[in-house]
Fold:
Amino acid sequence: MKQTKIVCSISDRRCGQDFIRKLFFAGMNVVRMNTAHATPDGIREIIRNTRAVSPHIGILIDTKGPEVRTTGVEVPIEYKAGQMVKVFGRPEMDTSHDIINLSYRDIARDVKVGDHLLFDDGAIDMKVVENTGPMLVAQVMNDGVLGSHKSVNVPGEHIDLPTLTEKDRNNILLAIEEDIDFIAHSFVRSAADVRAVQNILDEHGSDIRIISKIENQEGVDNIDEIIEASYGIMIARGDLGIEVPIERIPGIQREIINKCIKAKKPVIVATQMLHTMISNPRPTRAEVTDIANAIYSRTDALMLSGETASGKYPLEAVQTMSSIAEQAENDIHRYAEKNGAASMYSMSVNDQKEFLAQSAIAATEKIGVKGIITDSLTGQTARNLAAFRGPTPILAICYKDKLQRILNLSYGVIPVFQKDRLKPENMFYAALRMLRQKGYISTDDNVAYLSGSLGEQSSTTFLEINKVAEVFDKNYQFHMPR
Structure:
Protein backbone atom coordinates (compact mmCIF):
# COMPACT_ATOMS: atom_id res chain seq x y z
CA MET A 1 0.00 0.00 0.00
CA LYS A 2 1.36 3.40 -0.99
CA GLN A 3 2.38 5.93 1.64
CA THR A 4 2.32 8.98 -0.65
CA LYS A 5 -1.12 10.61 -0.69
CA ILE A 6 -3.08 11.49 -3.86
CA VAL A 7 -5.25 14.58 -4.39
CA CYS A 8 -7.75 14.40 -7.28
CA SER A 9 -9.46 17.36 -8.93
CA ILE A 10 -13.18 16.70 -9.36
CA SER A 11 -15.46 18.73 -11.65
CA ASP A 12 -19.11 19.37 -10.92
CA ARG A 13 -19.74 18.09 -14.43
CA ARG A 14 -18.45 14.65 -13.40
CA CYS A 15 -18.88 14.03 -9.70
CA GLY A 16 -21.28 11.11 -9.35
CA GLN A 17 -20.93 8.89 -6.30
CA ASP A 18 -19.93 5.86 -8.35
CA PHE A 19 -17.17 7.87 -10.05
CA ILE A 20 -15.81 9.21 -6.75
CA ARG A 21 -16.01 5.74 -5.19
CA LYS A 22 -13.89 4.24 -7.95
CA LEU A 23 -11.21 6.91 -7.52
CA PHE A 24 -11.28 6.40 -3.74
CA PHE A 25 -10.68 2.67 -4.01
CA ALA A 26 -7.95 3.30 -6.59
CA GLY A 27 -5.97 5.42 -4.11
CA MET A 28 -7.48 8.91 -3.91
CA ASN A 29 -7.14 10.49 -0.43
CA VAL A 30 -8.37 14.05 -0.98
CA VAL A 31 -10.90 15.61 -3.39
CA ARG A 32 -9.94 18.99 -4.80
CA MET A 33 -12.51 21.47 -6.16
CA ASN A 34 -11.39 24.18 -8.60
CA THR A 35 -13.55 27.27 -8.03
CA ALA A 36 -12.41 28.81 -11.32
CA HIS A 37 -14.80 26.44 -13.09
CA ALA A 38 -17.43 25.32 -10.52
CA THR A 39 -20.60 27.08 -9.40
CA PRO A 40 -21.64 27.19 -5.72
CA ASP A 41 -24.33 24.59 -6.41
CA GLY A 42 -21.78 22.46 -8.22
CA ILE A 43 -19.38 22.72 -5.28
CA ARG A 44 -22.11 21.60 -2.88
CA GLU A 45 -22.88 18.64 -5.11
CA ILE A 46 -19.26 17.52 -5.10
CA ILE A 47 -19.13 17.81 -1.31
CA ARG A 48 -22.41 15.95 -0.85
CA ASN A 49 -21.40 13.08 -3.12
CA THR A 50 -17.91 12.81 -1.63
CA ARG A 51 -19.28 12.51 1.88
CA ALA A 52 -21.85 9.97 0.74
CA VAL A 53 -19.02 7.78 -0.58
CA SER A 54 -16.95 8.10 2.60
CA PRO A 55 -16.85 10.59 5.49
CA HIS A 56 -13.10 9.93 5.65
CA ILE A 57 -12.12 11.53 2.31
CA GLY A 58 -10.49 14.94 2.72
CA ILE A 59 -12.04 17.84 0.80
CA LEU A 60 -10.03 20.81 -0.51
CA ILE A 61 -11.26 23.93 -2.28
CA ASP A 62 -9.15 26.38 -4.31
CA THR A 63 -9.40 30.13 -4.32
CA LYS A 64 -8.70 31.89 -7.60
CA GLY A 65 -6.37 34.31 -5.84
CA PRO A 66 -4.86 37.44 -7.34
CA GLU A 67 -4.63 36.88 -11.09
CA VAL A 68 -4.87 38.83 -14.35
CA ARG A 69 -6.96 37.57 -17.30
CA THR A 70 -7.94 38.79 -20.71
CA THR A 71 -11.53 39.80 -21.35
CA GLY A 72 -13.91 38.00 -23.69
CA VAL A 73 -13.59 37.59 -27.45
CA GLU A 74 -16.31 36.87 -30.01
CA VAL A 75 -14.18 34.21 -31.70
CA PRO A 76 -10.61 33.02 -30.98
CA ILE A 77 -8.07 35.52 -32.32
CA GLU A 78 -5.09 34.41 -34.40
CA TYR A 79 -1.78 36.24 -33.94
CA LYS A 80 1.40 36.13 -36.01
CA ALA A 81 4.93 36.89 -34.81
CA GLY A 82 5.87 40.53 -35.42
CA GLN A 83 2.38 42.01 -35.15
CA MET A 84 1.83 44.99 -32.83
CA VAL A 85 -0.97 45.01 -30.25
CA LYS A 86 -2.33 47.61 -27.83
CA VAL A 87 -3.04 46.44 -24.27
CA PHE A 88 -5.34 48.21 -21.78
CA GLY A 89 -6.66 47.52 -18.29
CA ARG A 90 -10.37 47.70 -19.15
CA PRO A 91 -12.25 44.76 -17.65
CA GLU A 92 -15.59 46.07 -18.93
CA MET A 93 -14.58 45.88 -22.62
CA ASP A 94 -14.11 42.85 -24.88
CA THR A 95 -10.85 42.03 -26.62
CA SER A 96 -10.25 42.39 -30.36
CA HIS A 97 -7.29 41.58 -32.57
CA ASP A 98 -5.63 44.99 -32.26
CA ILE A 99 -6.66 45.78 -28.67
CA ILE A 100 -6.35 43.31 -25.80
CA ASN A 101 -8.22 44.33 -22.66
CA LEU A 102 -7.31 42.89 -19.27
CA SER A 103 -9.17 42.38 -15.99
CA TYR A 104 -6.62 44.48 -14.08
CA ARG A 105 -7.05 48.23 -14.56
CA ASP A 106 -3.56 49.29 -13.42
CA ILE A 107 -1.55 46.96 -15.65
CA ALA A 108 0.36 49.87 -17.23
CA ARG A 109 1.46 51.09 -13.80
CA ASP A 110 3.06 47.76 -12.86
CA VAL A 111 4.62 46.83 -16.22
CA LYS A 112 7.62 48.47 -17.89
CA VAL A 113 9.13 48.48 -21.36
CA GLY A 114 11.03 45.24 -21.97
CA ASP A 115 8.69 43.08 -19.88
CA HIS A 116 7.01 40.08 -21.45
CA LEU A 117 3.26 39.50 -21.30
CA LEU A 118 2.59 35.75 -21.40
CA PHE A 119 -0.95 34.78 -22.37
CA ASP A 120 -2.77 31.47 -21.89
CA ASP A 121 -0.17 29.74 -19.69
CA GLY A 122 2.64 31.06 -21.88
CA ALA A 123 1.21 29.94 -25.23
CA ILE A 124 1.56 33.49 -26.62
CA ASP A 125 4.47 35.79 -25.75
CA MET A 126 4.23 39.55 -26.31
CA LYS A 127 7.07 41.97 -25.48
CA VAL A 128 6.21 45.45 -24.21
CA VAL A 129 7.87 48.05 -26.45
CA GLU A 130 6.03 51.16 -25.28
CA ASN A 131 4.20 52.35 -22.15
CA THR A 132 2.11 55.50 -22.56
CA GLY A 133 0.23 55.51 -19.25
CA PRO A 134 -3.04 53.64 -19.59
CA MET A 135 -1.87 51.91 -22.78
CA LEU A 136 0.87 49.35 -23.45
CA VAL A 137 2.14 48.58 -26.93
CA ALA A 138 3.44 45.03 -27.32
CA GLN A 139 5.05 43.05 -30.12
CA VAL A 140 3.85 39.49 -30.73
CA MET A 141 6.84 37.14 -30.37
CA ASN A 142 5.28 33.89 -31.63
CA ASP A 143 2.29 32.62 -33.58
CA GLY A 144 -0.72 31.64 -31.49
CA VAL A 145 -4.46 31.80 -30.90
CA LEU A 146 -6.04 33.73 -28.01
CA GLY A 147 -9.44 32.81 -26.60
CA SER A 148 -11.63 34.39 -23.93
CA HIS A 149 -10.56 34.99 -20.33
CA LYS A 150 -7.06 33.57 -20.66
CA SER A 151 -4.36 33.91 -18.01
CA VAL A 152 -1.80 36.71 -18.16
CA ASN A 153 1.62 36.45 -16.52
CA VAL A 154 4.34 39.09 -16.28
CA PRO A 155 7.51 37.27 -15.14
CA GLY A 156 9.70 39.25 -12.77
CA GLU A 157 7.15 41.96 -11.94
CA HIS A 158 5.04 42.52 -8.83
CA ILE A 159 1.44 43.01 -9.90
CA ASP A 160 -0.31 44.91 -7.11
CA LEU A 161 -3.48 42.85 -6.99
CA PRO A 162 -5.68 42.37 -3.90
CA THR A 163 -5.08 39.13 -2.02
CA LEU A 164 -8.73 38.05 -2.26
CA THR A 165 -11.43 38.69 -4.81
CA GLU A 166 -15.10 38.93 -3.90
CA LYS A 167 -15.58 35.49 -5.43
CA ASP A 168 -12.80 34.15 -3.20
CA ARG A 169 -14.51 35.55 -0.09
CA ASN A 170 -17.80 33.98 -1.07
CA ASN A 171 -16.16 30.61 -1.69
CA ILE A 172 -14.34 30.76 1.66
CA LEU A 173 -17.67 31.42 3.37
CA LEU A 174 -19.14 28.48 1.46
CA ALA A 175 -16.24 26.30 2.63
CA ILE A 176 -16.90 27.38 6.23
CA GLU A 177 -20.62 26.69 5.88
CA GLU A 178 -19.91 23.18 4.52
CA ASP A 179 -17.11 22.58 7.06
CA ILE A 180 -14.65 21.26 4.52
CA ASP A 181 -11.05 20.49 5.44
CA PHE A 182 -8.63 22.58 3.36
CA ILE A 183 -8.50 25.86 1.47
CA ALA A 184 -5.73 26.02 -1.15
CA HIS A 185 -5.07 29.73 -1.61
CA SER A 186 -3.71 30.57 -5.05
CA PHE A 187 -0.79 32.84 -5.94
CA VAL A 188 0.37 33.32 -2.35
CA ARG A 189 3.11 35.96 -2.32
CA SER A 190 3.77 36.43 1.39
CA ALA A 191 2.55 35.49 4.86
CA ALA A 192 0.17 38.46 4.66
CA ASP A 193 -1.76 36.68 1.90
CA VAL A 194 -2.17 33.65 4.17
CA ARG A 195 -3.30 35.80 7.09
CA ALA A 196 -5.98 37.43 4.92
CA VAL A 197 -7.63 34.02 4.55
CA GLN A 198 -6.94 33.04 8.17
CA ASN A 199 -8.63 36.22 9.41
CA ILE A 200 -11.87 35.24 7.68
CA LEU A 201 -11.65 31.73 9.13
CA ASP A 202 -11.00 33.13 12.62
CA GLU A 203 -13.94 35.53 12.37
CA HIS A 204 -16.23 32.53 11.83
CA GLY A 205 -14.55 30.17 14.29
CA SER A 206 -13.49 27.80 11.51
CA ASP A 207 -10.69 25.22 11.83
CA ILE A 208 -10.20 24.78 8.07
CA ARG A 209 -6.50 24.39 7.25
CA ILE A 210 -4.81 26.65 4.69
CA ILE A 211 -2.62 25.20 1.95
CA SER A 212 -0.57 27.94 0.25
CA LYS A 213 -0.04 27.52 -3.47
CA ILE A 214 3.39 28.66 -4.63
CA GLU A 215 3.01 29.95 -8.18
CA ASN A 216 5.32 32.93 -8.64
CA GLN A 217 8.75 34.33 -7.80
CA GLU A 218 7.48 36.28 -4.80
CA GLY A 219 6.12 33.08 -3.28
CA VAL A 220 9.49 31.39 -3.78
CA ASP A 221 11.37 34.36 -2.32
CA ASN A 222 9.14 34.44 0.78
CA ILE A 223 8.75 30.69 1.19
CA ASP A 224 10.01 30.54 4.79
CA GLU A 225 7.42 32.98 6.15
CA ILE A 226 4.70 31.40 4.01
CA ILE A 227 5.48 27.92 5.38
CA GLU A 228 5.36 29.26 8.92
CA ALA A 229 1.96 30.88 8.36
CA SER A 230 0.39 27.90 6.53
CA TYR A 231 -0.76 24.40 7.41
CA GLY A 232 0.87 23.10 4.24
CA ILE A 233 2.24 24.02 0.82
CA MET A 234 1.28 23.16 -2.75
CA ILE A 235 3.97 23.52 -5.41
CA ALA A 236 1.75 24.56 -8.33
CA ARG A 237 4.14 24.10 -11.21
CA GLY A 238 1.83 25.43 -13.94
CA ASP A 239 1.98 29.16 -13.29
CA LEU A 240 5.28 28.76 -11.46
CA GLY A 241 6.84 27.44 -14.68
CA ILE A 242 5.72 30.62 -16.44
CA GLU A 243 6.67 33.09 -13.73
CA VAL A 244 10.21 31.77 -13.22
CA PRO A 245 12.69 30.23 -15.71
CA ILE A 246 11.44 26.71 -16.33
CA GLU A 247 14.84 25.13 -15.75
CA ARG A 248 14.65 26.30 -12.12
CA ILE A 249 11.44 24.38 -11.34
CA PRO A 250 13.06 21.04 -10.31
CA GLY A 251 15.43 22.79 -7.89
CA ILE A 252 12.68 24.97 -6.43
CA GLN A 253 10.47 21.91 -6.01
CA ARG A 254 13.18 20.00 -4.18
CA GLU A 255 14.03 22.94 -1.92
CA ILE A 256 10.40 23.59 -0.94
CA ILE A 257 9.84 19.91 -0.18
CA ASN A 258 12.90 19.88 2.09
CA LYS A 259 11.77 23.02 3.90
CA CYS A 260 8.29 21.60 4.50
CA ILE A 261 9.68 18.33 5.81
CA LYS A 262 11.89 20.19 8.29
CA ALA A 263 8.90 22.30 9.36
CA LYS A 264 6.81 19.09 9.79
CA LYS A 265 4.17 20.43 7.39
CA PRO A 266 2.50 18.65 4.45
CA VAL A 267 3.67 19.43 0.91
CA ILE A 268 1.88 18.66 -2.36
CA VAL A 269 3.45 18.55 -5.84
CA ALA A 270 0.92 19.53 -8.50
CA THR A 271 0.36 20.18 -12.22
CA GLN A 272 0.85 17.96 -15.27
CA MET A 273 1.91 14.90 -13.29
CA LEU A 274 0.16 12.63 -15.82
CA HIS A 275 -0.91 15.22 -18.37
CA THR A 276 -0.88 12.89 -21.38
CA MET A 277 -3.42 10.65 -19.62
CA ILE A 278 -6.04 13.34 -20.19
CA SER A 279 -6.34 11.87 -23.68
CA ASN A 280 -4.17 8.72 -23.63
CA PRO A 281 -4.49 5.52 -21.57
CA ARG A 282 -0.77 5.35 -20.78
CA PRO A 283 1.68 7.95 -19.43
CA THR A 284 4.99 8.93 -20.95
CA ARG A 285 8.25 7.65 -19.45
CA ALA A 286 9.07 11.23 -18.51
CA GLU A 287 5.84 11.55 -16.49
CA VAL A 288 6.54 8.30 -14.64
CA THR A 289 10.03 9.57 -13.81
CA ASP A 290 8.63 12.95 -12.72
CA ILE A 291 6.30 11.28 -10.23
CA ALA A 292 9.03 8.98 -8.95
CA ASN A 293 11.45 11.87 -8.49
CA ALA A 294 8.87 13.81 -6.47
CA ILE A 295 8.55 10.75 -4.23
CA TYR A 296 12.33 10.29 -4.04
CA SER A 297 12.39 13.91 -2.81
CA ARG A 298 9.89 12.76 -0.12
CA THR A 299 6.80 14.79 -0.97
CA ASP A 300 3.72 14.08 1.16
CA ALA A 301 1.25 14.14 -1.70
CA LEU A 302 0.79 14.37 -5.46
CA MET A 303 -2.09 16.03 -7.29
CA LEU A 304 -3.99 15.17 -10.46
CA SER A 305 -5.77 18.04 -12.20
CA GLY A 306 -7.27 17.69 -15.67
CA GLU A 307 -6.47 13.99 -15.57
CA THR A 308 -9.39 13.35 -13.19
CA ALA A 309 -11.45 16.53 -13.67
CA SER A 310 -12.04 16.19 -17.41
CA GLY A 311 -9.73 13.54 -18.85
CA LYS A 312 -10.74 10.40 -20.72
CA TYR A 313 -8.93 8.06 -18.33
CA PRO A 314 -9.46 9.34 -14.76
CA LEU A 315 -9.54 5.96 -13.04
CA GLU A 316 -6.50 4.73 -14.95
CA ALA A 317 -4.63 7.92 -13.98
CA VAL A 318 -5.20 7.32 -10.26
CA GLN A 319 -4.30 3.64 -10.58
CA THR A 320 -1.14 4.56 -12.49
CA MET A 321 -0.09 7.16 -9.94
CA SER A 322 -0.73 4.73 -7.07
CA SER A 323 1.37 1.98 -8.64
CA ILE A 324 4.23 4.37 -9.44
CA ALA A 325 4.14 5.69 -5.87
CA GLU A 326 4.20 2.23 -4.33
CA GLN A 327 7.13 1.15 -6.51
CA ALA A 328 9.11 4.34 -5.86
CA GLU A 329 8.61 3.99 -2.10
CA ASN A 330 9.80 0.38 -2.24
CA ASP A 331 12.85 1.50 -4.24
CA ILE A 332 13.70 4.11 -1.60
CA HIS A 333 13.56 1.66 1.28
CA ARG A 334 15.33 -1.12 -0.63
CA TYR A 335 18.16 1.26 -1.52
CA ALA A 336 18.39 2.38 2.10
CA GLU A 337 18.65 -1.20 3.35
CA LYS A 338 21.23 -2.14 0.73
CA ASN A 339 23.46 0.90 1.08
CA GLY A 340 23.01 1.77 4.72
CA ALA A 341 21.43 5.08 3.76
CA ALA A 342 19.15 5.77 6.68
CA SER A 343 15.74 7.32 6.36
CA MET A 344 15.38 10.88 7.52
CA TYR A 345 15.41 9.97 11.20
CA SER A 346 18.78 11.73 11.56
CA MET A 347 17.10 15.11 10.88
CA SER A 348 17.47 17.58 13.74
CA VAL A 349 14.67 17.86 16.30
CA ASN A 350 13.40 20.80 18.32
CA ASP A 351 11.54 19.33 21.27
CA GLN A 352 10.59 16.18 23.17
CA LYS A 353 7.66 15.30 20.88
CA GLU A 354 9.87 15.40 17.79
CA PHE A 355 12.60 13.42 19.56
CA LEU A 356 10.17 10.62 20.44
CA ALA A 357 8.85 10.53 16.87
CA GLN A 358 12.40 10.44 15.53
CA SER A 359 13.24 7.57 17.90
CA ALA A 360 10.21 5.58 16.73
CA ILE A 361 11.26 5.91 13.09
CA ALA A 362 14.88 5.05 13.94
CA ALA A 363 13.60 1.90 15.67
CA THR A 364 12.15 0.66 12.36
CA GLU A 365 15.70 0.23 11.07
CA LYS A 366 17.65 -0.49 14.23
CA ILE A 367 15.37 -3.05 15.91
CA GLY A 368 12.87 -3.92 13.21
CA VAL A 369 9.72 -2.11 14.32
CA LYS A 370 7.10 -2.89 11.67
CA GLY A 371 4.27 -0.63 12.74
CA ILE A 372 3.76 2.59 14.71
CA ILE A 373 0.59 3.51 16.61
CA THR A 374 -0.30 6.87 18.11
CA ASP A 375 -3.45 8.55 19.35
CA SER A 376 -4.04 12.13 18.40
CA LEU A 377 -6.16 15.14 19.28
CA THR A 378 -4.31 17.72 17.13
CA GLY A 379 -2.41 15.53 14.67
CA GLN A 380 0.99 16.97 15.60
CA THR A 381 2.57 13.66 16.65
CA ALA A 382 1.33 11.98 13.47
CA ARG A 383 2.80 14.82 11.37
CA ASN A 384 6.08 14.57 13.29
CA LEU A 385 6.24 10.86 12.51
CA ALA A 386 5.35 11.49 8.87
CA ALA A 387 8.17 14.04 8.51
CA PHE A 388 10.82 11.40 9.19
CA ARG A 389 9.52 9.35 6.22
CA GLY A 390 9.93 5.89 7.73
CA PRO A 391 9.23 2.62 5.87
CA THR A 392 6.42 1.40 8.13
CA PRO A 393 2.76 2.47 8.42
CA ILE A 394 1.72 5.00 11.05
CA LEU A 395 -1.71 4.25 12.47
CA ALA A 396 -3.12 7.46 13.96
CA ILE A 397 -6.16 7.03 16.21
CA CYS A 398 -8.00 10.36 15.86
CA TYR A 399 -10.33 11.70 18.53
CA LYS A 400 -11.99 14.05 15.99
CA ASP A 401 -13.49 12.91 12.71
CA LYS A 402 -12.19 16.00 10.91
CA LEU A 403 -8.64 15.24 12.03
CA GLN A 404 -8.88 11.93 10.21
CA ARG A 405 -9.57 13.78 6.97
CA ILE A 406 -6.85 16.36 7.61
CA LEU A 407 -4.20 13.69 8.16
CA ASN A 408 -5.02 12.33 4.70
CA LEU A 409 -2.35 14.75 3.43
CA SER A 410 0.45 13.36 5.63
CA TYR A 411 2.89 10.79 4.26
CA GLY A 412 2.51 7.24 5.54
CA VAL A 413 -0.27 8.06 8.02
CA ILE A 414 -3.33 5.81 8.20
CA PRO A 415 -5.81 7.96 10.14
CA VAL A 416 -8.72 6.25 11.89
CA PHE A 417 -11.50 8.05 13.75
CA GLN A 418 -12.18 6.59 17.20
CA LYS A 419 -15.70 7.71 18.05
CA ASP A 420 -16.01 5.92 21.37
CA ARG A 421 -13.55 6.70 24.11
CA LEU A 422 -11.74 3.47 25.00
CA LYS A 423 -9.26 2.66 27.71
CA PRO A 424 -5.70 3.08 26.40
CA GLU A 425 -5.13 -0.69 26.50
CA ASN A 426 -8.29 -1.46 24.56
CA MET A 427 -7.52 1.19 21.95
CA PHE A 428 -4.02 -0.21 21.56
CA TYR A 429 -5.35 -3.76 21.11
CA ALA A 430 -7.84 -2.56 18.50
CA ALA A 431 -5.08 -0.78 16.59
CA LEU A 432 -2.89 -3.88 16.68
CA ARG A 433 -5.71 -6.03 15.37
CA MET A 434 -6.31 -3.59 12.54
CA LEU A 435 -2.65 -3.62 11.49
CA ARG A 436 -2.62 -7.41 11.59
CA GLN A 437 -5.83 -7.72 9.57
CA LYS A 438 -4.46 -5.43 6.88
CA GLY A 439 -1.25 -7.46 6.70
CA TYR A 440 1.10 -4.74 7.92
CA ILE A 441 2.39 -6.67 10.93
CA SER A 442 2.56 -10.24 12.21
CA THR A 443 2.64 -11.60 15.75
CA ASP A 444 6.44 -11.90 15.60
CA ASP A 445 6.94 -8.22 14.79
CA ASN A 446 7.77 -5.32 17.07
CA VAL A 447 5.36 -2.42 17.25
CA ALA A 448 5.87 1.10 18.65
CA TYR A 449 3.31 3.17 20.53
CA LEU A 450 3.52 6.93 21.16
CA SER A 451 1.11 8.74 23.44
CA GLY A 452 0.81 11.02 26.45
CA SER A 453 0.73 9.80 30.01
CA LEU A 454 -1.26 12.78 31.28
CA GLY A 455 -4.49 12.09 29.46
CA GLU A 456 -6.09 12.85 26.13
CA GLN A 457 -5.26 16.57 26.22
CA SER A 458 -1.56 16.05 26.95
CA SER A 459 1.27 16.08 24.43
CA THR A 460 3.36 13.02 23.59
CA THR A 461 5.39 11.95 26.63
CA PHE A 462 6.42 8.33 26.00
CA LEU A 463 7.46 5.79 23.38
CA GLU A 464 6.92 2.11 24.11
CA ILE A 465 8.06 -0.83 21.95
CA ASN A 466 6.64 -4.35 22.32
CA LYS A 467 6.47 -7.60 20.43
CA VAL A 468 2.94 -8.09 19.12
CA ALA A 469 2.62 -11.66 20.40
CA GLU A 470 3.63 -10.69 23.93
CA VAL A 471 1.06 -7.89 24.08
CA PHE A 472 -1.75 -10.34 23.28
CA ASP A 473 -0.34 -13.18 25.41
CA LYS A 474 -0.06 -10.97 28.49
CA ASN A 475 -3.04 -8.71 28.00
CA TYR A 476 -4.33 -9.43 31.48
CA GLN A 477 -1.28 -7.65 32.96
CA PHE A 478 -0.55 -5.17 30.18
CA HIS A 479 -1.01 -1.52 31.17
CA MET A 480 -0.25 1.71 29.38
CA PRO A 481 1.78 4.29 31.33
CA ARG A 482 -1.11 6.62 32.13
